Amino acid sequence: MATITVIGAGAMGSAVGRRLAEGGATVLTFLEGRSTATLDRAKAAGMRPTTLTEAIGADLVLSIVPPAEALGVAKTVAAESLRLAKPVVFIDCNAIAPATMKQVAETCAGTPVEVIDGSIIGGPPRPGYDPKFYVSADSENHTRRLSDHGLVVRRIDGGIGAASALKMSYAGITKGMTGLGTAMMLGAIRNGADESLKREIAESVPDIDKRLSASIPDMYQKAYRWVAEMREIAEFLGPDDAASQIFHGMAGVFEKMAADRDGDAVLASQLDKLLAVKEGK
């Protein structure tokens, strides 16, 4: 039975911790400075909060935090690893650009930390559903322990940056579509073309209509987390690629939707009303 640390006990981190615990792993977490609600969520998922030293002494250490926190977690793990007398296997599972992932690896250079590039495709694990954990730079197959305890792991040939590139590409398409649909529908609402747009989408491209009708409302509570992710995707494409500007724009869209959720939710209400319009009405 493996001991696995999950740093981060948000919706994804706690669900991953629960799946690993259900699969027989001992699951630790380090939550210094986090809220009581976060501590309660971690404990309910079968995760045991502990000290940083014990946490990084586990067989595997997973980082599942918002993109903006990824480098800080790596720095903390690298510094604490110098206190241990054994190697630390650290898997960064965050939605970060390959360049940021390489910074994570560089941060850990010269320490006992072995860095594995990871990315999660899909939502939090739940009964009957499993996201996929893609990994690269795992020459020793350390991540087999994740498979052994209930996670779906897929290996990618390539080094640091390969798994992160997959995440950036996939999220750019899927979350980018949600952001684009949100922006265009809000534009149509402002100009009185909203119901006509919705009916045309439903008639002409029903698959897109179905997808946006689910993904846009689902986005509201996640929008604040997607802001940094969109900026990471822009970084992934690079300043010489004009498409990077699209994702700077998407960051702005999600920033606006996050502020709307924290405020009076006027935009969300307008979108919900529009998404409820049925074809032919």
Automatic annotation (TrEMBL):
Residue ranges of domain 6-phosphogluconate dehydrogenase NADP-binding in the record:
3-131
- Tell me which domain of life the UniProt entry assigns to the organism this sequence originates from: Bacteria
Write out the GO MF terms.
NADP binding
Q: Which Gene3D superfamilies did the record assign? A: N-(1-d-carboxylethyl)-l-norvaline Dehydrogenase, domain 2 (1.10.1040.10), NAD(P)-binding Rossmann-like Domain (3.40.50.720)
Q: Which Pfam families match?
A: DUF1932 (PF09130), NAD_binding_2 (PF03446)
The Phosphogluconate dehydrogenase NAD-binding putative C-terminal domain, residue ranges: 190-256
Output the InterPro entries linked to this UniProt entry.
6-PGluconate_DH-like_C_sf, 6PGD_dom2, 6PGDH_NADP-bd, NAD(P)-bd_dom_sf, Pgluconate_DH_NAD-bd_C
List the protein's name.
Answer: 3-hydroxyisobutyrate dehydrogenase-like beta-hydroxyacid dehydrogenase
- What is the originating organism of this protein? Neorhizobium alkalisoli
Organism lineage = Bacteria, Pseudomonadati, Pseudomonadota, Alphaproteobacteria, Hyphomicrobiales
